[in-house]
Amino acid sequence: MTDLLVVEDDDQLRKALTLTLRSRGYVVHPAANGAEALAGVASVRLDVVVLDLGLPDMDGVTVIERIRETSGVPIVVLSARRDQSDKVTALDAGADDYLTKPFGFAELLARMRAALRRAARVDAPEESVLVQGPLRIDLGRRRVELGGEEVHLTPIEFRLLSVLARHAGRVVTHKQLLTEVWGPQSAEETQYLRVYLTHLRRKLEPDPSRGRIFHNEAGVGYRLELASPPEPSP
């Protein structure tokens, strides 16, 4: 069974989503505002959160940020906000996908399934620990260290890093990165990569302006350069 939290302040839409998703076999926990959403995340082991940004008590981006303080559950945003900056803000806060209203129910289901698949890939055990100078990436434990200190990455940042790490030393195309991290519906959204690679460089590069670890192959993709070979798993 898949547990969903549906956060929507519009009563009719929330009820419609709840009934339709339950008819498809999902266990649905409805919430009408941000406070109920956060209480749901704290009390139920969820597989996916479907979240409207326009909530009556707090902005949906704040809800995303609060969820990300304690949980990596996939978050699919539903919003009437169509501006590109709103999308980037929500994704930057930790959302996994963004669907604008009005939307087709079949597309929502597809986005949810894609988010679940991506989460499953990230949670699957990895065998390698990769090292580059003071940077250590433990894919199995989902832990990143710089100079022996753990670095906090958002779920999307870690997914992006893990894809690059699995192909270390090789160029990963924009389309492949976008498809593996955000899903095939985002294969042309190259601005996502610029935003998140900037974040990773700031967090993990000794000198973000020089790009010694994360290399941009102009017009093609990105490459993670690791001078040291992978360590064997203990």
Describe the structure.
With 234 residues, the chain is of the alpha/beta class. The protein has eight helices and twelve strands. A five-stranded parallel sheet has the order 2-1-3-4-5, sandwiched between helices. Helix 2 runs parallel beside helix 3 (60-68) and helix 6 (155-166) crosses helix 7 (174-182). It is elongated, with a radius of gyration of 18 Å. Residues 228-234 have low confidence and may be disordered.
List the helices and strands and how they pair.
Blueprint: E1 3-7, H1 11-23, E2 27-31, H2 34-43, E3 48-52, H3 60-68, E4 75-79, H4 84-93, E5 97-100, H5 105-123, E6 129-132, E7 135-138, E8 143-146, E9 149-150, H6 155-166, E10 171-173, H7 174-182, H8 190-204, E11 214-217, E12 221-224
Parallel strand pairs: 1-2, 1-3, 3-4, 4-5
Antiparallel strand pairs: 6-7, 7-8, 8-9, 10-12, 11-12
Helix pairs in contact: 2-3, 6-7, 6-8
Short description:
This protein has 234 residues and is of the alpha/beta class.
Query: How do the helices and strands follow one another from N- to C-terminus?
Result: EHEHEHEHEHEEEEHEHHEE
Helix percent reads 40-55%
Number of helices: 8
Low-confidence stretches: 228-234
Question: For the report, how would you describe the main beta sheet?
Answer: 5 strands, parallel
Oligomer: single chain
Give the N-to-C terminal Cα separation.
34 Å
Number of strands: 12
Structural class: alpha/beta
Which radius of gyration do the C-alpha atoms yield? 18 Å
The average pLDDT value, as a whole number, equals 84
Spatial arrangement of strands, main beta sheet: 2-1-3-4-5
Beta-strand residue fraction: 15-25%
What characteristic shape results from the CA principal axes?
elongated
